[in-house]
Design brief:
Layout (H helix, E strand, L loop, with lengths): L24 H18 L6 H7 L15
Length: 70
C-alpha cells in the first residue's frame, strides 16, 4: 500500500516523502501498528476513497473529485 509521510517541520512543502527511507522504517512500522490498532478499536474498515464515494452516493466532477457545494 502506498503511503505518504513527511516531516512538516523540516519539509513544510512536503517535497521529501519519507516512506521507504532506511532510517525511517522503525517509525513507519510503529505508526502502522498504531493505525491498525486504532482502526480495530473503532471498527473502521479504512476502505479506499472511492468506496466512500459509492456509499455516500456522491458524484464526481470531471477531475474525479466530489465538488464542494454550499
Amino acid at each position: 500500500m502506498a503511503w505518504l509521510l513527511f516531516d512538516n517541520k523540516i519539509d513544510p512543502y512536503q517535497l521529501n516523502n519519507l516512506v521507504g527511507n532506511e532510517g525511517d522504517t522503525s517509525m513507519q512500522d510503529d505508526m502502522e501498528k498504531l493505525l491498525s490498532q486504532r482502526l480495530k478499536e473503532t471498527g473502521d474498515e479504512f476502505l479506499p476513497g472511492l468506496e466512500y464515494v459509492k456509499k455516500g452516493a456522491y458524484t464526481l466532477d470531471e477531475t474525479g473529485i466530489v465538488p464542494y457545494t454550499n
